[in-house]
Amino acid sequence: MLDRNKIDPATVTVKVDGISVEVANGTTVLDAIKGLNKSVPTLCYSDRMKPYGACRTCLVEVEGRKPVAACHTPVMDGASYRTASPFLTKLRRNITELIVSDHPLECLDCSANGRCELQSLAQQVGLRTPRYESPRTHNPPKDDSHPFVKLEMSKCIGCARCVRACDEVQGSFVLQMSGRGYDTKVIAGNDTGFEAANCVSCGQCVFECPVAALAEPGTREAGLPDQVVNTTCSYCGVGCSLDVKTKDGRVVNIEPSKRGSANRGHTCVKGRFAHQFAHSDDRLTTPLIKEGGKFREASWDEALDLVARRFKEIHDQHGPDSMALISSSRCTNEENYLMQKLARAVMGTNSIDNCSRVCHSPSAFALGEALGTGAGTNSFQDVHLSDVLMIVGANPTEAHPVFGARIKQAVLAGCKLIVLDPRNTELARMADLHIPLRPGSNVAVINAMQHVLIAEDLLDHDFIARCSEGFEEVKATVAECTPEWAAEIAHVDPELIRAAARMYAAGKASQILWGLGVTEAGHGSNTAFGMINMAVMTGNLGRPGTGTSPIRGQNNVQGASDVGALPNVFSDYRSVKDPVARAEHREAWGVEPPTNTGLRIPDMFEAAHEGKLKAMYILAEDVAQSDPNTTFVVGALESLDFLVVQEIFMNPTAELADVVLPGTTFLEKDGTFVNSDRRIQRVRRAIQPVPGTRVDAEIVHEVARRMGVDLGFAAEDGTVDASKVMDELARLTPKWRGVSYARLEAHGFLQWPCPDPEHPGTDIVHRGGEFLRGKARLTATPWQEPGELPDDEYPWMLTTGRQLFHYNVGTMTRRTDIVKLHKAKEETLRIHPGDARQLGIHTGDNVKVQSRRGEVTVRAEVTRAANKGTVFMTFHFPESRTNLLIGDAADEFTGCPEYKVCAVRLARVGSAEA
Amino acid sequence: MYEVELGVTLREIIFELAGGMAPGQTFQGVQVGGPLGGILPESMLDTPLDFEAMAAKGGIVGHAGIVVYSMEDDLMKVGRGLMHFCAVESCGKCFPCRIGSVRGTELMDQMIETGVTDARLALLTDLCETMKYGSLCAMGSMTPAPIESLLQHFPEALERYRRPAAE
Q1: In this structure, are residues A477 and A510 in contact, taking their beta carbons and an 8 Å threshold?
Q2: Which CATH number describes the domain made up of A113-120+130-279?
Q3: A66–B133: do the CB atoms touch at under 8 Å?
Q4: B135: which chain A residues are within 8 Å (Cβ-Cβ)?
Q5: Do A158 and B92 touch (CB under 8 A)?
Q6: How do beta strands A659-662 and A642-647 pair?
Q7: B98 touches chain A (CB under 8 A)
Q8: Are domains A4-84 and A361-550 of this chain identical in fold?
Q9: What does each C-alpha distance from A466 to A123, A545, A771, A774, A775 come to in angstroms?
Q10: Residue A512's closest CA among A640, A620, A388, A410?
Q11: B139 Cβ partners below 8 Å, 6+ apart?
Q12: Residues of A at the B interface, defined by Cβ within 8 angstroms
């Protein structure tokens, strides 16, 4: 694959094996051959990396000239190529013979046996034992030290695919070809091994290795898989397409799918290697009922009958709004749809919410209000079309690694990068401009950037006039918001703010991406509104490479909200008060849906404390660990009369339940997820549900049935046909009306809006400035202080987030081999060297972190990844209980909590040796 | 160093300008243009030194340095040295040059040490073809040229090492 941007629009005509074909000038001979559904052997070639031309097995004949390597030779107008002949076969055989002469002949004992590209090439060209007598070979020792990458470099053929994948796909530059001539070898770091190098364990090197020089554990023992199932990853919101390989009903390994539209054959360490949780010994495998404060095992019938009976009793005694449901953004769209249908059509309450409440609800709200749809405007591939990227409060190379890798590639290719982040993230270090603003000061800086755009007339006046409303109000609001003013609040250089605004405005296609650093900080909606204002004012919407897109956190947090697991809207964000939507649902469901807005997650806990909320049904969401102000949440759950938790593992939330129902992982079910860029993709069952568990959709369906309502999707044996759920969901969701399993099978994915069965889906919303709400709304966002400010008693700012190797509260990742990685062992408090010196803290010391709500003790990690004045912790490690510290300040529009802004005091309580 | 016009024959350069063979030495072959140039026998001494004429005979102009081998030189060992030169100089990127130059050196060592056989000759011929058509750059693809010229023009240099296959 050549750089598509550099291909000449002109075409040339060539002949391949006598067939005339017209191709773009600059096309490689190999692409021309593949375009005719023909092939030639290759070893060093990989279709998503730049051609390399090393192995020479793709040689083709050219009439009147010497043979050329097809992979890296551009076609020549009028040339005639031959892909096969006795001469070519002999040449390819003799090249293969050379390779095999320095390769161990232990195929039967090799993990690549049966899938080795060298083995199949040898078979194809008819190579037998090499003729070379006692050749000098390379025999470095095996290296099994890495948990996911087994090195056997005696098998290395020197194709450099691993090195190029590390550079061109992942962008980590850990591997390199070292030395020259016959002694050329692959090394990690400065030949210091993977762990010492900056390896992120993404596994791309293993995936690309055509032999077994780099192999993953387990594959040698398992032999060839007996089933390969394509599905969608259940970690973050990138939506990587995965090929799950199973043998005898168990997962052997998981590989990225090259057909995946979101990941293009890439994955991170989690999606690739962290799958052992599904077969973990401590899966919940039987329903549990609490009696006398202790759980006892129960049959499904008994547990489900109890759940249905108690829900009905509470419903009849206290009314429908005494019950609330938390649905799960880890589960499928179909399951979320069933949960909200259970809430609205069976229980009669709108009190259903999902964890987007505590992550991107401000993004969805602001985008919906300002532009007309509560999702990102553009697609992942647009980062390769932007000339300026502005990334605000997001750390995608750790939290969304596959998208982060694409951003890195775009920046390496010359795209300008502006980063607004209190941390020195990897992207911040790569950025042209990094504004290390104080947590909680986002609105001030974004307002100042708008001020600069207006003051320096960096505006797209035509776009503003033609496509927007509200400009004068915004102009008035930001009139006083000079960079100097914002700099005081944010503790940054005002010239940085000016330069960033100018750089953003100067781009031909500028794009803003943001993460939870925007939304999980006070006034998150206003920050989102402000960034949308910037895009509208500079005409950076509705075109390739532009847009305003949140990077969604969980695999299906977009979908859970899209399908209506929210207290105020049906699917498609149609208000529960919207008469048209109400009529459609009434007809489909045969009941009148409730009209009052239901409780949001934080309101549920309030209502429980107040005694108004009596029962909750929580699906796969560990709120006792993941929600802020842990003590308050636990108290709320304890005060309920009846709590049902549906989970795959016992966790702090499930411990508080009256009934625990054992659900299933994504590997055991069918359905769909929606990723961060509105991509609806299939989830397919790769293994049977672990004995004793049931698919979550079936459980929800069964609860409804026992409450007296048939939701309408179950077969006689109780199994739920997910495709039928999608059919009803699509009918009730105008922007999804073109979605069906048949179409998803055929297309691989559909990006909503997809309003009819002929519609191809939408990669860029609001094309041409035609906004879904008509005109874009510019929204005035007056500055307010965050809910939490430092003072003399709590002088440090704590901000929280993810790290690469773990996911959320670690339920899944901490039950996998990922914990063998040195970098994934325990929680640390990241603190800047200057701050650490002031407090006498060294790496490894125990530090007491105290907020106004609680205290935890954690080991220090002195690092420049932290900025002065701001410390950082993740929430992946239950024992460190980070969320105990976090307050309950929240976004004024959506109730999204302020996880990212927490005033703390720090004290060293023990030395590194202790 | 001599400056000559293109088109002057090799014979004129070697025997007139340079004064011919040293006393007691007999001409065996000439290699023009560096270690990637073919070795031409006496019968080709009237080849003019220009690009086309040299190429037609399997030689090159290259850097136009001229090395003359006398009958005292063992062209098998010269060929082995040229193959080793490629192994030393190879960047290691393309497979035919990286592995081929090492195998070529080993093979010629084996021929010198334990004899030339038909099988070894066939393998050397295949290797030359593989490197010539398969290598990525001129380095690997021209390394076979002197070896091929050796096989073609100086059979006696190989025959010295010929051993019956059975031995």
Answers
A1: no
A2: 3.30.70.20
A3: yes
A4: 56
A5: yes
A6: parallel
A7: yes
A8: no
A9: 65, 21, 11, 11, 8
A10: A388
A11: B36, B86, B89, B90, B91, B97
A12: 53-56, 59, 66-67, 69, 90-91, 94-95, 98-99, 101-102, 131-136, 157-158, 160, 177, 179-184
Set of chain A residues whose Cβ sits within 8 Å of the Cβ of B108: none
B125 touches chain A (CB under 8 A): no
Nearest Cα residue in chain A from B123? A131
CB of B137 less than 8 A from some CB of A: no
Which H or E run contains A414? none
Q: Pick from A262, A227, A234: which is nearest to A683 by CA?
A: A234
Count CA within 13 A, CB hemisphere, residue A245: 15
How many Cα atoms sit within 13 Å of A265 on the Cβ side?
Answer: 15
Q: Rounded distance, CA A722 to CA A335, Å?
A: 8
ipTM of the complex: 0.96
Least confident of A412-426, A682-696, A846-860, B131-145: A846-860
How far apart CA A49 and CA A159 sit, in angstroms, is 13
CA gap A259, A595 in Å, rounded: 43
User: Structure tokens of A695?
Assistant: 């698919």
- Nearest of A272, A499, A229, A254 to residue A405 by alpha carbon: A272
- B94 with A56: Cβ contact below 8 A: yes
- pLDDT tens digit sequence for A482-500: 999 999 999 999 999 999 9
For residue B15, the enclosing domain spans 10-70
Distance set, CA A548 to CA A368, A409, A468, A509 (Å): 12, 20, 15, 12
Instruction: Give me the amino acid identity at B26.
Output: T
**Which residues in chain B are contacts of A59 at CB distance < 8 A?**
133-134
> Using alpha carbons only, what angle is made at residue A190 by residues A184 and A193, rounded to the nearest 5 degrees?
90
Q: Which residues of A touch B94 (CB under 8 A)?
A: 53-56
User: What is the distance between the alpha carbons of residues B93 and B96, in angstroms, rounded to a whole number?
Assistant: 9
Class of CATH domain A796-910: mainly beta
My answer on whether B27 and B96 are in the same domain is no
How many residues comprise chain A? 914
HEC sequence for A634-648: HHHHHCCCEEEEEEC
Residue A683: pLDDT band with limits 50, 70, 90:
very high
Query: For A135, which of B91, B103, B126 is closest by C-beta distance?
Result: B103
C-beta neighbour count of A300 within 10 angstroms = 18
Q: For A508-518, write each residue's pLDDT tens digit.
A: 999 999 999 88
User: How far apart are the C-alpha atoms of A757 and A749, rounded to whole Å?
Assistant: 13
Q: Is residue B5 part of a domain?
A: no
Structure tokens at B10: 């090799």
CATH-assigned architecture of domain A4-84 = Roll (3.10)
Across B97-123, average pLDDT? 96
Q: Which of B28, B47, B70 is the last residue of a domain?
A: B70
Q: CA–CA separation, A791 vs A735, rounded Å?
A: 48
Q: Which sign does the torsion angle of CA A375, A377, A383, A384 carry?
A: positive
A128-155 pLDDT, tens digit each: 999 999 999 999 999 888 889 999 999 9
Contact state of A182 with B102 under an 8 Å Cβ cutoff: yes
Measured distance CA(B23)–CA(B5) in Å, rounded: 28
Tell me the chain B residues in contact with residue A95 when contact means C-beta distances shorter than 8 Å: 95-96, 130, 134
Q: Chain B contacts of A99, Cβ < 8 Å? A: 95, 99
B164 — pLDDT class (breaks 50, 70, 90): low
Report the domain count for chain B: 2
Supply the CATH number for residue B137's domain.
1.20.1440.230
- CB-neighbour burial class of residue A414 (10 A; exposed 0-12, middle 13-18, buried 19+): exposed
Q: How far apart are CA A868 and CA A454, in angstroms?
A: 32
